[in-house]
Amino acid sequence: MTRSVGATLPVDAHAIRTDRLLLRPLTEADADDVFSYQSLPEAVRYLPWPLRDREESREHTLKRAGFTRLANDKDAIILAAELPGPDGEPGPVIGDLSIFLQSAVNAQVSIGWVFHPILHGRGYATEAARAVLEFVFTEIGAHRVFAEVDPRNTPSVALCRRLGMRLEGILVENEIFKGEWSDLAVFAILDREWGDAR
Prior knowledge:
This is Protein N-acetyltransferase, RimJ/RimL family. With 198 residues, the protein is an alpha+beta fold. The protein has helices at 31-38, 41-44, 54-65, 124-140, 154-162, 191-197; strands at residues 11-12, 16-17, 22-25, 69-70, 76-82, 93-103, 108-115, 144-149, 166-177, 180-190. It is built from six helices and ten strands; from the N terminus they run βββαααββββαβαββα. It is globular, with a radius of gyration of 16 Å.
């Protein structure tokens, strides 16, 4: 069966509830929460941006808050991962997830994530990424979803595997990243594989 992402475009960002999280479009009001992890070396070690001061983080958050619709190749949606309070009241943003439409014709989407390191090991990233994959496959109609990960980033490598993504290959020393030659691992999952992995 041949299908295209284009059949379901455009797609607008909207709130997605999981057991413990609210995934919703990032807003300028999230800037302080985003700064709380963008300013930590361990959070940005394997991400393509430097440590940011408060103003740089605010500007970056404002720019990314505008990414709310997939209509054309290279469009993006950025979702904040909010941890609501016990009675459902708004809570802090503990991370964010990126969805990029790489090719509408070939139904290819890439995803990425960053979470506050103080909360690592609690399953929040897995819960959020599963919800994003469900959104990407069911609402966008993706055929293939991939993530590009530095192989030294063992938590993200483990997350890809928990999501049922397979390692498709490693590009060896493919770029100078933060002053050193770095490898890039590509993990991916197809729509039919996601049906089995859920």
